[in-house]
Design goal:
Blueprint (H helix, E strand, L loop, with lengths): L2 H10 L4 H14 L9 E5 L7 H4 L4 E6 L2 H9 L4 E4 L13 E7 L8 H9 L2 E12 L7 H5 L8 H10 L2 E9 L4 H12 L14 H12 L15 E8 L1
Parallel strand pairs: 1-2, 1-4, 2-3, 4-5
Antiparallel strand pairs: 5-7, 6-7
């Protein structure tokens, strides 16, 4: 990602509505994933470590990150074992297998996503699970994606096919961020027509609006476990090693 995006990510990860809502929704689904007692968890591409607190509630946490800037922030949290790493061919902890591997909006940053998935599957224990989130719908690809160095956005059908090709059986998948879909989709479509060096709609809004958006989007955690949402700005998927 651009240097400015790394800094923006670090500054906003604890408060921006999107990060807060994603953690709330993912937390509500992670507790439903079948795992052994005392599971060992890996976060692939942990960024500045904002998800490590929710993962440490599940089990023993390992994580890796490519960016030195983000890695420093993640290590400073003193949660789990965090090392430098890169997908698909520089995954640390070579002697360790994992019961759960998570990727929170990471796969779209990797040009060879198929190889990345295969490399992660090889590090899963027998019956291990993968929990992944990605941005949805290629037609929403915009300046926001270019600024964040995304190679693609996914349809649910495309993501399922890639997960299955890597040797995993899909257990659960849904779109999420449905309430803001019309507004954000319109903004992204407008942004896709520009050549600006900035991304529309990435700054944290005013506190009152940010809190409202947190409540609105986070409320999907009550819907998602019961209803398969047919569209949204992102996709959540859980799969298991065959």
């Amino acid at each position: 990602m651009e240097q400015s995006v790394y800094q923006e990510h670090i500054e906003q990860e604890e408060t921006h509505w999107w990060f807060v809502a994603r953690r709330a929704i993912c937390s509500s689904l992670l507790v439903l994933v079948r795992l052994p007692q005392n599971p060992v968890v890996l976060e692939a591409g942990c960024g500045s470590g904002g998800n490590l607190p929710i993962l440490t509630k599940i089990g023993k946490v390992f994580a890796f990150e490519l960016s030195d800037i983000m890695l420093t922030q993640a290590k400073a949290r003193n949660i789990g074992v965090v090392e430098h790493g890169k997908l698909p061919d520089e995954i640390p902890f070579p002697e360790q297998k994992f019961d759960l591997i998570t990727m929170f909006d990471v796969l779209e940053h990797i040009e060879d996503d198929a190889s990345a998935l295969s490399a992660l599957v090889a590090r899963l224990n027998s019956d291990g699970a993968l929990f992944i989130t990605v941005p949805a719908f290629g037609w929403l690809f915009s300046q926001h994606d270019r600024l964040h160095h995304h190679f693609r956005r996914y349809s649910k059908k495309e993501l399922i096919a890639k997960i299955q090709a890597a040797g995993l059986a899909v257990e659960y998948t849904t779109y999420w961020n449905i309430f803001l879909f019309p507004v954000v989709a319109a903004i992204r479509i407008i942004s896709s027509k520009t050549t600006s060096k900035t991304s529309i709609g990435t700054k944290t809004p005013a506190p009152w609006l940010n809190n409202l958006m947190i409540k609105l989007v986070s409320s999907e955690k009550f819907i998602i476990p019961k209803v398969n949402i047919p569209f949204g700005l992102s996709i959540i998927l859980t799969a298991r090693k065959k």
